[in-house]
């Protein structure tokens, strides 16, 4: 499905990134494996090569100036071009608002949001220079869609990524570059820090099958369950898919809506605080939106 294509994956030393790198190589792509951990990146490269695939490593911290250009440059140097980017690198520093330190907030935003911006920009410049289009695949999150307790920085970064996706879809359409965000839900090192999921992560690591309800109702599976969507979006079969926020996890595929007004009302000469107070209950009845990622997985 990806024969002849070159795919750059950031944060590919483990978890979703690693699973996607292996799946992309199996589908015929040459893969640039980026990670901050040199041993992890090289391990993925070795595994791909041992299976007859093509891969190189680029060890750098995403979000640092020059890292994105180094990753794209590595793709061009090793394989002559770049066809798709999966911007996946991430970090967590979960903390409630009043306990969040500036350094932790900055690290999360730098890695996720700034890193995605820089990688997207470097890839877009390469796509435009070589012609023929390309694919930007950006990692979003349920936290960015709904919010999550203790994840203000992470939710802000992921919501920002979806916002950039929508703008980039418009900006790159003329160059035949598709831009999509995926909302993955999988048991990984990052989700192991969520108390409600920790027992399932432990069970998975023991080799036990995941409950059917977790995979179907909640759409939570393994990292390998995420990879097929990235492979599809990087392929020619998805050339008509752009500007979408697509969820995948376990057995479940979903399409997220874009924000839109769900109800409107008018008040002649503008609204006053008193008019808002009098109207709010009837105006908002049945329309107030829920917040928070559901965490009841029993």
UniProtKB/TrEMBL annotation:
Protein's recorded name: SDR family oxidoreductase
InterPro entries, A to Z: KR_dom, NAD(P)-bd_dom_sf, Peroxisomal_Beta-Oxidation, SDR_fam
Oxidoreductase listed as a keyword: yes
Domain Ketoreductase: residue ranges: 5-193
Chain coiled-coil ranges: none
Family: Belongs to the short-chain dehydrogenases/reductases (SDR) family.
Pfam families membership: adh_short (PF00106)
UniProt keyword terms in alphabetical order: Oxidoreductase
UniProt superkingdom: Bacteria
């Amino acid at each position: 499905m990806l024969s002849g294509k070159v795919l750059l994956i950031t944060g590919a030393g483990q978890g979703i990134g690693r699973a996607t790198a292996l799946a992309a190589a199996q589908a015929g792509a040459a893969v640039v494996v980026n990670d901050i951990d040199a041993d992890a990146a090289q391990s993925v490269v070795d595994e791909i090569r041992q299976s007859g695939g093509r891969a190189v490593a680029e060890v750098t911290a995403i979000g640092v100036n020059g890292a994105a250009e180094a990753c794209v440059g590595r793709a061009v140097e090793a394989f002559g071009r770049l066809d798709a980017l999966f911007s996946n690198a991430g970090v967590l520093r979960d903390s409630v608002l009043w306990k969040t330190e500036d350094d932790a907030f900055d690290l999360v935003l730098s890695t996720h949001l700034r890193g995605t911006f820089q990688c997207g920009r470097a890839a877009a410049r390469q796509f435009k220079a070589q012609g023929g289009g390309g694919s930007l695949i950006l990692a979003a999150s349920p936290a960015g869609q709904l919010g999550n307790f203790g994840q203000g920085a992470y939710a802000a970064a992921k919501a920002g990524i979806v916002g950039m996706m929508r703008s980039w879809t418009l900006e790159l359409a003329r160059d035949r570059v598709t831009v999509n965000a995926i909302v993955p839900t999988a048991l990984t090192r990052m989700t192991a820090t969520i108390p409600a999921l920790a027992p399932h992560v432990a069970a998975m690591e023991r080799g036990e099958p995941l409950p059917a309800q977790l995979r179907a109702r909640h759409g939570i599976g393994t990292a390998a369950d995420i990879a097929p969507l990235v492979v599809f979006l990087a392929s020619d079969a998805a050339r008509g898919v752009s500007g979408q926020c697509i969820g995948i996890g376990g057995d479940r595929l979903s399409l997220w809506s874009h924000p839109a007004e769900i109800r409107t009302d008018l008040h002649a000469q503008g609204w006053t605080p008193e008019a808002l107070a009098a109207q709010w209950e009837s105006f908002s009845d049945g329309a107030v939106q829920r917040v928070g990622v559901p965490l009841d997985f029993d």
